[in-house]
Specification:
Keywords: Transferase. Belongs to the sulfotransferase 1 family. GO terms for molecular function: sulfotransferase activity. Residues 141-265 form the Sulfotransferase domain. The chain has one domain (8-271): Rossmann fold. Helix content is 37%, strand content 11%. The protein is built from twelve helices and six strands. The protein has helices spanning 8-11, 28-36, 54-65, 76-81, 132-139, 147-155, 168-173, 175-186, 188-194, 213-220, 223-228, 250-264, and strands at 12-15, 18-21, 43-48, 106-110, 124-129, 163-167. A four-stranded parallel β-sheet has the order 4-3-5-6, with helices on both faces. Strands 1-2 form a two-stranded antiparallel ribbon. Mean pLDDT is 84; it is low at 1-6.
């Protein structure tokens, strides 16, 4: 499940036994670079299965960091460069000046699970997860290894001091706490930014607006607001938690329930989305 193959040769490649997405112009050695990448202490890495709310979360991250106007469309080439395995050869070296307080960070994204991603206890990892039924109806034709194994590998790191686990469902239900949680993953500097005023361009730490950055991010990155943006809406389906019930058959639902029991029983994952996955 979650490994169906369609136009495999055109859109995907196998690297070291992994089925990987193949963006235009990105060669095998870029994926190998991702697999071999050794995180540095100032790295902030988001690990997620495809269609788990990646674009949404990255938009929030960049809004917090001040790299984009809040809720702004991220051009495709810039979005792709955030992913370790999507970079072109001349983009593989990406240094960042670290300030004296060591508060600057460098953000990366990856679809590698924690099983394959190099681990540095000094770096920080954001583990983004989504329930299997909603993810299935959104990305069932995107092979990226076994979903259940990937999620289990993230779950096993949930109590690591340098790992922050967050779910799509949590972000939908409680955006304020989720945004603060994401800022905490980036660092205390970015938590402070959340409570600063925005300037008129939508960036934080300005003084030309009564808007607090946190409030503006909540407002502008709500699913409804982003879906209404012509440039952004292509990245979103419906975004409704539990929408699988309108699409999936009972047999399909039962099959996923069985996989959950078989793969996750005894880990705590089998009850994480109990309400969201109930028929």
């Amino acid at each position: 499940m979650f490994t169906s193959i369609r136009n495999m040769d055109k859109h995907f490649r196998v690297v070291r036994g992994l089925i990987c997405f193949k963006p235009p112009g990105v060669e095998k050695h870029s994926v190998e670079y991702e697999l071999d990448y050794q995180p540095l202490p100032w790295d902030r890495i988001m690990s997620s299965y495809p269609k788990s709310g990646n674009f949404w979360t990255i938009n929030i991250v960049l809004s917090i960091m001040g790299d984009i106007h809040v809720g702004q469309y991220i051009p495709k080439d810039r979005y792709s460069k955030l992913f370790l395995g999507f970079r072109l050869p001349n983009e593989l070296v990406d240094d960042i000046p670290v300030d004296r307080d060591g508060e600057n960070c460098r953000f990366h994204a990856t679809h590698l699970s924690m099983t394959y991603l190099a681990y540095n206890p000094g770096a920080k990892y954001l583990l983004l997860m989504r329930n299997p039924k909603d993810l299935w109806i959104t990305g069932k034709d995107l092979p990226n290894g076994d979903y259940f194994t990937a999620i289990k590998s993230s779950w096993e790191h949930r109590e690591d001091s340098n790992c922050t686990l967050i779910t799509y469902e949590e972000m939908s239900a409680n955006p304020r706490d989720s945004i603060v949680k994401i800022a905490s993953f980036l660092g205390i500097k970015y938590v402070r930014r959340l409570y600063g005023r925005c300037d008129d361009s939508g960036h934080g730490t300005g003084s030309n607006s009564d808007d607090i950055l946190l409030d503006r991010i909540i407002r502008e990155t709500r699913f409804k607001a982003m879906k209404s943006n012509h440039e952004l809406k292509m990245h979103f389906r419906k975004g409704i938690v539990g929408d699988w019930r309108a699409v999936m058959t009972r047999d399909e639902s039962d099959l996923i329930d069985k996989r959950v029991r078989d793969e996750w029983m005894g880990t705590g994952l089998e009850t994480l989305w109990e309400r969201e996955m109930k028929w």
